[in-house]
């Protein structure tokens, strides 16, 4: 995969700006089964493009693949003040996710979840959880042993195949909780996604800082699992027979487990064994 | 008052339980609510609904059929599963 860095092109001056010509840079990404072109514009477009090229290293594309470039999605990312780079990088990551989800609405079953995959078999563990409850931390740990698929959105076809979304890991800054750093999975040493990842097991994360070192697990019935997971879906009603599709997936990979824990390090070995058992 | 079910994006029955997806919202139906949903394909008076539910489940304990039906209908209206006559 992946060679393109950035392609500087000259664009016309926006009518609302006093500056002369702006240089823009196009990043071509392949993620969640779609092509996406991000046009970096503004006085510091090169700064933004350079940062994005590093943090989105796993998704850079040469424009080929299943879905031709004519079907590519498009997004603009604007940076004038280089001091706002981290903020704009975070915002662009969020917009890329929203754009890709919209682009796959009605096609993929999309879960707000992280996922890793056995590097040889492609058997994948999907961990569903709301934002801010440990998906990224877990991805960072498990991605040292298994192929990193995503820390944010898992896109699943009707036969259980996963379209990887190996975006940068969005890590909240301790000193500025409103700001997340977008860290390249390559820079963190995470293993690459295998060629054909498939859902093997789904768990629902329930993080409770009061639990200490204990870990509690509970097998969920299909209906309990469906209602635990359905809140963490995107564009579900765009699918044909959406509840059936979700229930079929939960049954095929079940039983779904709810895992209550305090710290990701406490469940790393347990989840690794769970995935190894399905590989 | 007359009520009718709102068309669902999907209806799933598993292990005797029923889930609906209505306006993008998933709703888990009790056994009573599932029967109400089944009986309201067309507009129906709540009084008639209460009679049919009593025939199906028997008289409720500690309440009247009309009160129990009214309570369930109110909940289903609140969740957008039913709509009422304007």
Features:
heterodimer; A: 279 residues; alpha+beta; Phosphoenolpyruvate Carboxykinase, domain 3; 4-stranded mixed beta sheet; globular; disordered N terminus; B: 86 residues; Outer Surface Protein A, domain 3; 3-stranded antiparallel beta sheet; 3 helices; 29% strand
Q: How many strand segments of chain B?
A: 6
User: Could you give the order of the helices and strands of chain A?
Assistant: EEEHEHEEHEEEEEEEHEHEH
Query: Whole-number average pLDDT of chain B?
Result: 94
What is the total domain count of chain A?
2
Helix run count of chain B:
3
Q: Please work out how many helical segments of chain A DSSP would assign.
A: 6
Nearest-angstrom radius of gyration of chain B?
A: 12 Å
Write up what this structure looks like.
The complex is a heterodimer of chains A (279) and B (86). Chain A is an alpha+beta fold and 279 residues long. Chain A is 25% helix and 32% strand. Chain A contains six helices and 15 strands. In chain A, strands 5, 6, 7, 8, 9, 12, 13, 14 and 15 form a nine-stranded mixed sheet that branches. Chain A has a four-stranded mixed sheet with strand order 1-2-3-4. In chain A, strands 10-11 form a two-stranded antiparallel ribbon. In chain A, α4 packs across α5. Chain B is α+β, with helices and mostly antiparallel strands. Chain B has a single domain, classed as Alpha-Beta Complex (Outer Surface Protein A, domain 3). Helix content of chain B is 41%, strand content 29%. Chain B has three helices and six strands; from the N terminus they run ββββαβααβ. In chain B, the strands form two sheets. A three-stranded antiparallel sheet of chain B has the order 5-1-6. A three-stranded antiparallel sheet of chain B has the order 2-3-4. In chain B, α2 packs across α3. The longest helix of chain B has 14 residues. The mean pLDDT of chain B is 94. The interface between A and B is medium-sized, with 14 and 14 residues.
């Amino acid at each position: 995969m992946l060679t393109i860095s950035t392609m500087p092109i000259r664009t016309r001056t926006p009518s609302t700006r006093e500056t002369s010509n702006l240089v823009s840079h196009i990043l071509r990404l392949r993620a969640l089964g779609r092509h996406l072109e991000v046009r970096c514009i503004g006085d510091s477009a090169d700064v933004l493009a350079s940062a994005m090229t590093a943090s989105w290293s796993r998704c850079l594309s040469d424009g080929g693949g299943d879905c031709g470039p004519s079907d590519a999605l498009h997004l603009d990312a604007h940076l004038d003040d280089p001091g706002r780079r981290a903020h704009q990088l975070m915002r662009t990551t969020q917009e890329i996710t929203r754009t890709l989800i919209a682009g796959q609405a009605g096609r993929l079953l999309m879960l707000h979840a992280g996922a890793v995959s056995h590097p040889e078999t492609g058997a994948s563990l999907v961990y569903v959880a709301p934002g801010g409850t440990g998906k990224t931390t877990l991805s960072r740990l498990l991605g040292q042993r298994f192929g990193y698929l995503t820390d944010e959105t898992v896109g699943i076809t009707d036969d259980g195949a996963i379209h990887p979304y190996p975006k940068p890991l969005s890590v909240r800054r301790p000193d500025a909780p409103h700001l997340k750093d977008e860290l390249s999975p390559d820079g963190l040493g995470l293993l690459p996604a295998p060629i054909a990842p498939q859902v093997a097991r789904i768990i629902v994360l329930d993080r409770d800082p009061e639990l200490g070192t204990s870990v509690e697990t509970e097998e969920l019935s299909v209906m309990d699992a469906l209602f635990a997971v359905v809140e963490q879906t995107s564009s579900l009603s765009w699918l044909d027979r959406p509840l059936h599709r979700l229930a079929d997936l939960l049954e095929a990979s079940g039983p779904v487990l709810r895992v209550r824990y305090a710290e990701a390090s406490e469940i790393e070995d347990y989840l690794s064994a769970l995935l190894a058992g399905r590989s | 008052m007359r009520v009718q079910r709102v068309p669902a994006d999907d209806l799933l029955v598993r292990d005797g339980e029923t889930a609906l997806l209505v306006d993008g919202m998933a709703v888990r139906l009790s056994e009573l609510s599932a029967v109400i949903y089944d009986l309201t394909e067309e507009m129906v008076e709540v009084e008639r609904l209460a009679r049919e539910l009593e025939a199906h489940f028997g008289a409720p304990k500690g309440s009247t059929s009309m009160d129990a039906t009214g309570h369930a209908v109110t909940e289903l209206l609140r969740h957008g599963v039913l709509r009422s006559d304007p």
